[in-house]
Amino acid sequence: MPTDDHQYGGRLSTEIRTTLLELTREFVLGVRDCPGVTRIALVGSILTPKPRPKDVDILVAVTEAVDLPRLAKLGRRLRGSAQARLNSGADVFLANEGGEYIGRICHYRECHPRVLCHARHCGAVPHLADDLDVVNVDVALIATPPVELWPMITIRAIVPEDVERLLLAPLRLSTGMTAA
Questions:
Q1: How many helices (H) and strands (E) does the chain have?
Q2: In a domain, 151, yes or no
Q3: Total domain count for the chain?
Q4: Does 18 reside within a domain?
Q5: Are 35 and 68 in contact (CB under 8 A)?
Q6: Which residue range is the domain that position 97 belongs to?
Q7: Per-residue pLDDT band at 122 (split at 50, 70, 90)
Q8: Tens of pLDDT, residues 151-175
Q9: Strand 147-150 relative to strand 37-43: parallel, antiparallel, unpaired?
């Protein structure tokens, strides 16, 4: 019996991975036109053959001109869809132009103090959870993530077949991109 049965119950690995990858594709297609987004990358356990990853992790590089409310809405939609359909999750990690991790998309639609909020400056930048004491992304991962999804597809690691088939190939088709 899988140790993550409390999360996924009897769901098959193919259903879990397929749903997470399809939701990721929808997110990328929605975010790539968002002002201030310069790069979208895939990181985390979805890039391994792990049969039942607990979530999907996306790294988004942004400029100061990012439309953070729009990006946050799409990030919450991704997370909410993963939760509703699978009892899973999604994290959207943000990096600035200097390649530094600045936080995650806040899980809440509206900013106000919450006991469960671990942001250093809750509400200072709406929609940004700068919970750097809880989560931090290494600068090396930011500089060279295993898979970049936009503006070009760049693959720096061996990816599972389903990532190629369900995410990378459809993204190439939708944009006319080729792998770098």
A1: 6, 7
A2: yes
A3: 1
A4: yes
A5: no
A6: 5-175
A7: low
A8: 999 999 999 999 999 999 999 998 7
A9: antiparallel
